Q: What sequence folds into this?
């Protein structure tokens, strides 16, 4: 039997994306990012909603063309229902609903965070690919989340630990901001870190029990270091940028990996996946590889294209739900906040 063809739509934040999959095989993934926010140092919700309105039709059209299919070939539409910015979500939700009515095909709602976790099942034609067996652990790290999730099946996920304040991506972004590095800061810190000494500065580590994370103390400690050093030398940040970035990145990775090691040990699970925007970080990827070599972990690291928000992961999640007959009614509203 041929695999179901799913159109995925993602509009939770500032990327408008559409993707077509046949089962878990990717046929297309189109992303329109919104440059408009960079001038404001963060995503402006109202501008994001407007840009989604401008982008959604051409993005979906392109995804269908690139996949080499016609509208009539689509078996179901999957869309990100939440969490995210409400105005942004409304654009994708409304579009998906309208299209499902006009095509007379089922609608599948997708939780954005679950989609990040299931992105590891996507594969491209001709690519050698290994999906994780269940159960596996997933470290989901983005601008809004830092979670350790145990994944027992596509529909059975449990958050074992999460941040009690800032997310890891937020720590990168906020520290980058005080160094005058622009937004988003994560990629800039990553680039600078390759030229710096990770042990040049030592920042506070959280003492949070169990598998939870905290990054606000690190942020404050970083801020105080800057304040104290700038009082002695006004050129401190310029002179030590690379060392500051490397030490910050080193500390964030240490915090993330120490709890992940604990989770792996406690649960006896050595299949460990990485997901979310911060998984683009090359230091974090290297730390995963080091843990594979040292602790015998089987690791799953996403391609760079699937670290940011994308509809391919939404489409593949919708495929799993479609197979299980898990459709949603047309009157379902989007939700802004929630975890997996
Ligand atoms: O998942 P994502 O695209 O969306 C949000 O949750 O907003 O994650 C974005 C986050 C931002 O905080 C950004 O600075 C961070 O991911 N990020 C990185 C890197 N690339 C993106 N952080 C560290 N190193 C990177 N290379």
A:
């Amino acid at each position: 039997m041929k695999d179901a063809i799913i159109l995925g739509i993602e509009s939770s934040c500032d990327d408008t994306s559409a993707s077509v999959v046949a089962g878990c095989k990717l046929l297309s993934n189109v992303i329109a990012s919104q440059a408009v926010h960079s001038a404001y140092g963060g995503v402006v919700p109202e501008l994001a909603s407007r840009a989604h309105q401008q982008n959604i039709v051409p993005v979906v059209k392109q995804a269908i063309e690139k996949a080499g299919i016609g509208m009539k070939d689509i078996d179901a539409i999957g869309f990100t229902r939440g969490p995210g910015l409400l105005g942004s979500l409304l654009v994708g939700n409304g579009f998906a609903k309208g299209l499902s009515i006009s095509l007379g095909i089922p609608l599948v709602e997708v939780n954005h965070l679950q989609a990040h976790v299931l992105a590891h099942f996507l594969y491209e034609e001709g690519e050698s690919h290994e999906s994780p067996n269940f159960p596996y652990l997933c470290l989901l790290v983005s601008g809004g989340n830092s979670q350790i999730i145990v994944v027992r099946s596509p529909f059975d996920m449990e958050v074992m630990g999460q941040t009690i304040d800032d997310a890891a991506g937020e720590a990168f972004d906020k520290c980058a901001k005080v160094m005058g590095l622009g937004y988003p800061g994560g990629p800039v810190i990553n680039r600078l870190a390759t030229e710096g000494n990770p042990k040049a500065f030592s920042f506070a580590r959280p003492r949070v029990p169990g598998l939870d994370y905290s990054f606000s103390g690190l942020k404050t400690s970083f801020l105080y270091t800057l304040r104290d050093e700038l009082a002695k030398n006004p050129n401190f940040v310029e002179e030590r940028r690379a060392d500051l970035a490397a030490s910050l990145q080193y500390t964030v990775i240490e915090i993330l990996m120490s709890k992940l090691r604990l989770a792996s040990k406690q649960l006896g699970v050595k299949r460990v996946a990485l997901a979310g925007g911060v998984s683009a970080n090359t230091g974090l990827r290297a730390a995963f590889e080091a843990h594979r070599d040292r602790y015998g972990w089987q690791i799953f690291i996403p391609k760079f294209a699937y670290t940011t928000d994308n509809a391919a992961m939404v489409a593949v999640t919708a495929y799993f739900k479609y197979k299980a007959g898990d459709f949603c009614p047309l009157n379902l509203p989007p939700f802004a906040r929630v975890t997996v």
Remarks:
- The first helix runs from residue 45 to 67.
- The mean pLDDT is 95.
- The longest strand covers residues 25-33.
- The domain at 136-268 is CATH 3.30.420.40 (Nucleotidyltransferase; domain 5).
